[in-house]
Amino acid sequence: MILISVGIFTLMATLDGSIVNIALPVISKNLNIEMNMAEWVVSIYLVTICIFLLMFGKIADSIGKIKVFKIGSVMFIIGSIVCGLSDNLVMLLVGRVIQATGASMAMATNNGIITETFPLRERGYALGYIGSFVSIGAIAGPGIGGLILGHFHWSYIFWINIPIGLVALILGYVNLPKVEKTNPVKFDKTGFAAYFVTLLLFFGAIFVGQSIGFTNPYIIVAFVAAIIFFGIFLTIEKKVTNPMIELRIFRNHNFTLGLVAGFFIFVTNFFFNVISPFYLENALGIAASTASYILMAFPLVQVVVAPISGKISAKVNPIVLTIVGLVVIELAQLGYLAFNLKTEIWFILLCIGLNGLGNGLFQAPNNTMIMSSVETKDLGIAGGLNALSRNLGMIIGVSVSTTVLFLSMSKFYGKSVTTYVEGRPDIFIDGMRVTMSFAVVICLIAIVMSVVRLIKSGRSSNE
């Protein structure tokens, strides 16, 4: 019951990072805003999670993980109510920030609660299930969102969180331990300030740069300032007694390579996650509800394959399994690259299903390797960094894909483009093809990294 209550909120918190994607064309028209402004509804949620995730992890160690988890659950529900009531972009963004703050509190503590609650012999399976909740939540958003849009107003994407959230909250109140271990430590305020400014400048420069151009002096200054503050952050983390991020953990090559490979795959997935609603709904003219059925091929395949992959990884080298999964994902990206205005639905479904198959094969063994490559005392840190890498992957995927899409569309159109050009689907298809080429390269990097990890692990076992 503890696993269910923690898992439901983990699923919802991750789902809300992607569920809005399918509704962006509808929200854009309903609120009378351009596509790049509508993207902020997704981006501000992910940015807020990335900013506060590690901070709440540290606070949870001091005052109690369950307490922070419960507060975060309540905040998430309140944020969902604000989003549901929104009739303008500003109110919607405020609601998303409240939602994301609550989500970051839940994400920062879920692995810690599971680690402390479950005995060692069951911990791996429990953490694996939480990983599955995260992966499915991140990918199933457009499909589930489309099903809701097919029958209700877009605000119901947020209203649905309230009854489910209340059930999870009651389950958590009844089942989660009332007493827990705490470890009061001094919070790294200076480090957090440098980290906060770094992310704010970096992502602010990316999203504002999409509108005013990346050669704008203010955007260039913002990028340079972000690099400087990141250097300051690393310097602080090396010197303080209780840093926000334990940099020493990155000396573990298995952990670091697994983390980075996972990050690249979340970036890759979010390229098509962001572009697919506009391709299916605007370019091909498919209804949102029908588009959702098509996109559901991904999570449906993944949810079947993931547990099978988890069992197989116990019998064969899990790194080999991750490489097989990555190769299948790469095939799917190459398929996306071939999409055009005449592409048959069966081919679209095949590519989306292949992507789900590849992710199902990759995610479970990769998450297990990440968590099992560290010592027991570092499980909390590893879980927090794993969650951060996933969310960074999602937001980098959103920001880079939209940036490349708009820049390439602008080049093909001959003037600045920050939204879908009505009546010119060819411009969007050309931009999409360039954008998905980047996804192919990113996935290829992940494959190379995993092959390196396999070679290194082979050498270590021989020694």
Structural description of this entry:
With 463 residues, the protein is mainly alpha-helical. The chain has 18 helices and no strands. The longest helix has 38 residues, at 425-462. The mean pLDDT is 83.
Task: List the main descriptive attributes of the protein structure presented here.
about 475 residues, mainly alpha, Growth Hormone, Chain: A, about 0% strand, globular, transport, transmembrane helix, transmembrane transporter activity, MFS, transmembrane
Regions with pLDDT < 50 over 5+ consecutive residues? none
Give the N-terminus to C-terminus distance in angstroms. Answer: 44 Å
CATH structural class of the largest domain: Mainly Alpha
Rounded mean pLDDT is 83
Number of domains: 3
GO molecular function, one term: transmembrane transporter activity
Pfam families: MFS_1 (PF07690)
Protein name: Drug H(+) antiporter
Transmembrane segments: 37-56, 68-87, 93-114, 126-150, 156-176, 192-212, 218-236, 257-280, 286-306, 318-339, 345-362, 392-414, 434-455
Compact summary:
It is globular, with a radius of gyration of 21 Å. It has helices at residues 2-15, 24-30, 35-38, 40-63, 65-85, 89-117, 120-149, 156-159, 161-175, 189-212, 217-239, 253-283, 288-295, 297-312, 318-337, 345-372, 379-413, 425-462.
Layout of helices and strands:
Layout: H1 2-15, H2 24-30, H3 35-38, H4 40-63, H5 65-85, H6 89-117, H7 120-149, H8 156-159, H9 161-175, H10 189-212, H11 217-239, H12 253-283, H13 288-295, H14 297-312, H15 318-337, H16 345-372, H17 379-413, H18 425-462
Helix pairs in contact: 1-6, 1-7, 1-9, 4-5, 4-6, 4-10, 4-17, 5-6, 5-9, 6-7, 6-17, 7-13, 7-14, 7-16, 10-11, 10-17, 12-16, 12-17, 12-18, 14-16, 15-16, 15-18, 16-17, 17-18
Membrane topology: Multi-pass membrane protein
Subcellular location: Cell membrane
Pfam families: MFS_1
